[in-house]
Amino acid sequence: MMISYCPLRHCVAATFLLYLIPVSTFEIVEREDIYRSALCPAFLIFDTTAYLKDMTFELPCHCKPEATKSVVWFYQKRTGSNKTWVLTDFNGTVEFDSERIQSNFEIVFRFTIRMFSLIVFKAQLEDSGNYLCGSRDEHFFYGYNIDIQESSNAYVAFTDQGSHPQPDHITKHFVTFTTFWDWTVCDRCDVRGEQRRVGLCYIKTNYLNARFHTTLRNVTSCGSEAVPSKLKPYVSARRPEVIIRSCMTPCHQKKKGALGKLTSLMHSIMSLKDYIPFAPKVPTQIHTHQLGSRLSLACPGAKPEHAVAWDKDEDRLYRSQYLIGQNASMRVFIDHGNHLNFRAVQYDDKGIYYCWLQGKMKAGFRLAVHTDPSRSRRFSDPESVFAMKTIGISFFFFTLIFIFIQCVKCFFCGMDMRCF
User: How far, in Å, are 265, 266, 272, 281 from residue 269 at the CA level?
Assistant: First the structure.
């Protein structure tokens, strides 16, 4: 659903630029000596894009003039909102809105700017809204309307078990359906792997807001702001989908001729390093984490549409067993954004975790678990308060049981004092 990059030589300032003011909606300001461009619209519109919760995605800053050497990204919950946040400066180090940071603890760490593009790590539902790239003096170049769809209630189907996708929902005024991404490549090679296909909720209707650009006419994602408010209650019930199937592919495709034999020989020689004891299969970094805390690992260079797999040492962590939502009590799981998550790190989690990217082993993480001896427990800590409440309630409960048992004994003994 994303528009391709606009050549910079075609991207000049637009006829109308929108100024962001904190007390009202967007204000249209007329400019002189401005040229129109076929690829960069004269009037600011929003490119609608949908992602699944926990996915990491990148938003390019299209239509940036050549003279602009840095960009600032702005966030607005909805068009016409009287509140706008500046996410970060060009270096991704300065945050200008403390209220936004306090309301969302991870916002400082999940947003960064790299080569003019905004990267959002592990997107959450509250990240849905309008994202605009512009200059420091609030001249806007391009805008996105991002729809983050819930993943916890996603419809998961395993084709090996005979599951099927959801049927379309057809009414007189709209049609809701699932738009599937292409099947990923097999996430592992030379061993059994898995393929994944993500499907997001979309709607087709003649009543969409024209200010939001869509690739197909009258089609947009279900949570987009282009959908009229009267239709949103009817489309909110449809869930996104994730289809998974098994696959098997070789790591090396054999070719004919002398060159093919030579490449096969080189591949066989290079694969011998996997059998050398204590030799890392891929570049591995040491990751030290505190006991009992949360941890999320991301495969370097992975995008939402990529095939990613995880192994612990020699054990395969297949999605059929470790996909989020398969078991409510799962402590270690893979979310729909391809991240390996630990609810509470334990000593048994020590080891090397390998991630596969697009069917090739990409990187390794040697996980070391430690305690923090410098931190002493205080009575005001949440863990201490919980422990004291639990002990107090347990003491009160067992005291009642003791008194009840003594009363029963006295009743059957005829109030004989020797029963005590």
Answer: 6, 5, 5, 14
Tokens of 5: 């990059």
User: Cβ–Cβ contacts within 10 Å for residue 168, how many?
Assistant: 11
3-state SS class at 163? coil
Cα angle value 263/267/271 (rounded, 5°): 175
Residue type, 114: R
DSSP, res 56? -
C-alpha 331/C-alpha 344 separation (Å) is: 7
Mind listing the pLDDT tens digit for each residue in 138-192? 788 999 999 999 988 899 999 988 888 899 999 999 999 999 999 999 999 989 9
Q: Two tokens at 353?
A: 């975790």
β-strands 193-205, 111-114 pairing: unpaired
**Coil, helix or strand for 384?**
helix
342 C-beta neighbours (distance < 10 Å), count:
18
User: Please, which residues have CB within 8 angstroms of residue 114's CB and are 6 or more apart in sequence?
Assistant: 58, 92
Q: Which two tokens stand for residue 340?
A: 């390996």
SS3 for 184?
coil
Beta bridge partners of 28: 18
Pairwise CA distance, residues 323 & 332, whole Å:
9
Return d(Cα 162, Cα 362) in angstroms, integer. 32
Residue 259 has pLDDT above 80, yes or no: no
Question: Taken in order 383, 389, 391, 397, is the CA torsion positive or negative?
Answer: negative
Q: Is 79 exposed, middle or buried (0-12, 13-18, 19+ CB in 10 A)?
A: middle
- Which DSSP state fits 285? E
CB atoms inside a 10 Å sphere around CB 97: 15
- For residue 244, what are its two tokens? 């998974």
Structure tokens at 299: 């495969």
Looking at residue 33, what DSSP letter applies?
A: S
Q: Dmax of the chain from CA atoms?
A: 106
Structure-block tokens of residue 198? 């993500």
**Can you give the pLDDT at residue 18?**
30
Residues pairing with 212 in the sheet: 46
CA distances from 75 to 88, 127, 129, 132, 236 (A): 10, 9, 7, 6, 23
Report the distance separating Cα 122 and Cα 51, nearest Å. Answer: 10
CA distance 394 to 389: 8
Backbone angles phi and psi of 374, in degrees to 5: -75, -15
Give 30-70 pLDDT, tens digit per residue. Answer: 333 333 333 677 778 899 999 999 898 999 998 888 888 88
